[in-house]
């Protein structure tokens, strides 16, 4: 039995939803069930996340009277891709038939990132050693990783800007994107106000209200959309995953071993990917992960991005929906949704219109979480699994 992604769903993405996270989550879940061609009450597994809707919330509101599998994945933004692994194991073992992965958040109107409860590990490090020095946001922590990279490798602001501009250009082809209708030029990017050196305004992801849902099933409904297979998925962690300031190597992240494991298990390589959805909390982390996963050589990610390779029409289109930088921030589950739609469109038909990657067979999806946790998956349509 091989796991397939049978359905995906999402709400609109906004700065002020005016709705509870429960309402948003149920809308996305019902949309995913309709997409999968099943009654939502057939869902019998739930993968959730900290500080989000619990399995009990989901079961009560969807009327799931036969929920028999549930798990919470605490890997921050790496959790959305890691969740595919948990869902896959559940359906392939027979523990559940249809597993719902659900992210719902009022990430803008319900509390900005510095106001929300932290799920970072080792809170005594955070509160006793970092907060007294004013170091308490994701931008501040991850800027230090980028500064280390700048010490070891060449990286220009224009190369970081190439990531931001590619995401924004793709968002102009996506009516659901929060930045749709707002183009970004290099001049505007370079003039963005400082957030945490070297990150300026447009290096940072959006804060978003909305919800995404993905259903992983033992088999696809006969009258449903083309199934997308989870060919491989793995997770990894850096050394000292609870601490960043004392880490032996700031640039060694969990994505590297996760990607290596997936390449080995699937027999595929970076060159086999038709597109990649890369967790883009900050512009440098796209470059960082492209190198860690083997899409670009060490120290060469900036040049790779600036070459146009990550744009539609390039050798590896990245975040064709606009990503966290320009579509919306649903902790990377919207990356999985976009990968599924790209693969369905790769079989022919209308697809995603101007942002469709023609003939897409394999799409890689990455997750980045907490202080460098990583997750990596390769998804494929039926053309991709027949190779």
UniProtKB/TrEMBL annotation:
Coiled coil: none
Domain Thiolase C-terminal residues, every copy: 243-373
SUPFAM superfamilies assigned to the protein according to its UniProt record, in alphabetical order: Thiolase-like
GO molecular function, one term: acyltransferase activity, transferring groups other than amino-acyl groups
Bilayer-crossing regions: none
Matching CDD domains: SCP-x_thiolase
Protein name, as recorded: Transporter
Species for this entry: Streptomyces boluensis
Source organism phylogeny: Bacteria, Bacillati, Actinomycetota, Actinomycetes, Kitasatosporales
